[in-house]
Known about the structure:
Blueprint: E1 3-9, E2 19-25, H1 31-41, H2 47-65, E3 71-72, E4 76-83, E5 103-110, H3 112-121, E6 124-126, E7 136-142, E8 150-151, E9 156-162, E10 174-179, E11 182-185, E12 189-192, E13 196-200, E14 208-216, E15 224-227, E16 232-234
Parallel strand pairs: 1-6, 8-16
Antiparallel strand pairs: 1-2, 3-4, 4-5, 7-9, 9-13, 10-11, 10-14, 12-13, 14-15, 14-16
Amino acid sequence: MAIFVSSRKNTLPSCPAPFVVNSSCSSSRAEEEFQGDMADANAGLCMAEIVSHGKLMTDELVRQVSRGVNVHLGICSVHLGASGTMQKSDDAFCPEDSTNDHELHIYLRVNREFEKRVIAAAVVDRKGKGDVNIPLVRSAASVRAHEPSACAAGQLVRVEGDRLYFDETDPSLGLFFIVGAAEIRADYYVMVKSSMVIAEVPSGVPAGKCAIVVRGFCDDINVREGRLQAWFTVL
C-alpha cells in the first residue's frame, strides 16, 4: 500500500506551472478494521480491550472538548472554536439559531512529531498518469516472447498504457509509427482497449528506430496523442 501521486493539468491562473500534483489513497480502513489491525500487531492486547479503550477515549474527548478544553494527544490536539458575525459587541452567540451565521467547529491540529514520523515512513507510488486527456503509452513490445524488444513488419506489436482506446475505423486515429517526417498508421488491429493495443506492424515501416504514437478522442472533442518515451526497433 502507498499514497498514489500523479499529475493533472493546471487550470488555476494564479499558478504558472502547467501541471500540479494530485494524490489519492491506496485504500481505506473502517474503525473496526483499524482496531483489528491494532490487535493483530499487539499480542498483549485483545480486540475487546482495544475497542473498550477507543470508546473510553472518545467519550472523554466529547466530555472535555465540549467544555472548552484543548486536549493534546499523541497525534493531534482537539478543541472547539466559534465563528460568525455580530451587529453589536454585546450580541448573544446563538449557534442553535438557524437565522444567523453563528457556528461551532471542532479543530484538529496534527502533532508535529507525529507528522514527521508519518512523512518519514511514507511510501509513495508515482503513477505518472499525467494529463488525463492524453493517451499514456507505457511500453511497446513484440508479442513473440523470444523477441520482446524488436518487431518486424507483418508481426504483431503489443502497446500498453492508459487511455489508449480509439475508433480503429477512423483513419485519423490509431497506432502510428513515426520515421522522420513520415507517419505510417497500423491498419490491422487484433485488440483495442484502454490499457492495451495489439496491432500488426505495417509493411511500409522501414527497418530501424521509430517513434510510436497513439491518437484518440480522450475527451470526446479533440484528438489527443501520446508518445512512447523510448525508441522502438523495427527489424
